[in-house]
Write a structure and sequence with these properties.
5-stranded antiparallel sheet
Length: 243
């Protein structure tokens, strides 16, 4: 699965470079829909389950505009599954928008409007592009981490991941290698560290980034070669399993 590829890649980066390896998930908009289900949690809160054509499963908690019963949620899921199977999420959004504005029956327009709200919430939640990381133990073994302040900052970086995700998201759709050393990092928490990232692609489009985070004395040449090689490999594997 794509999750296996991402997890394995972050592990290999950390093992080869003896630092923290990070991999940015592709956006959910880059995957094609196989099936979607909605599970009521409470009131207007539902769990949206997306199964992609690659059999990757993604779960999102979304708030609907109204309190729908189980049968109504099933109708909404069936409407999406019947009309938009094998489409990417962006195309599902556009299709639902067209249905809302079309001359379809009022029932279909109402279902499409509610479904569109759910899909919009999913895409918005996914904007942070989930980050997978491995190798914090390599990172923390360095003698510099006897400094408590440096240790706290490192733990904060990997606990909320927001700065890393923001940096990688900002680099899209560039596929090339980017290097940030110490004070060059625009995010305060990342200053004092070096970050090297490289894009990977799917169907010719750059959909994510892989990278390594370490101290400023990391072996940059080795990092460039490793990330460049893994970028080609992850792109090839994603193309293979995503059709």
């Amino acid at each position: 699965t794509i999750k296996d590829v991402i997890d394995k890649t972050s592990y290999i980066i950390s093992r080869e470079l003896r630092n923290a390896g990070v991999v940015m998930w592709p956006s959910i908009e880059d995957f094609c829909l196989k099936r979607m289900e909605f599970v009521k949690v409470s009131g207007q809160t539902v769990l949206a389950v997306i199964i992609t054509m690659t059999n990757a499963v993604r779960n999102y908690v979304v708030e609907l505009d109204g309190d729908l019963e189980k049968t109504e949620l099933e109708k909404m899921a069936n409407f999406i599954n019947v009309n938009y199977e094998c489409m990417d999420i962006y195309s599902v959004q556009e299709g639902l928008r067209r249905t809302v504005k079309s001359g379809a029956s009022k029932g279909d327009r109402d279902i499409a409007k509610t479904a569109l709200g759910a899909i919009d919430s999913i895409v918005k939640e996914n904007i942070e592009n989930e980050i997978s990381w491995k190798g914090l133990d390599h990172f923390m073994d360095e003698p510099e981490f006897q400094d408590i302040d440096l240790t706290r900052r490192a733990l904060k970086i990997f606990s909320d991941r927001g700065d890393i995700a923001g940096l990688m998201r900002r680099e899209l759709p560039d596929e090339g290698i980017k290097v940030y050393i110490g004070e060059e990092n625009s995010f305060e928490q990342l200053r004092g560290y070096s970050i090297v990232t490289c894009g990977y692609s799917m169907h010719g489009k750059t959909v994510g980034r892989i990278g390594v985070i370490g101290l400023t004395r990391m072996d940059y040449d080795h990092a460039f070669r490793t990330l460049s090689c893994l970028s080609d490999l992850i792109s090839s594997k994603l193309h293979e399993i995503n059709g």
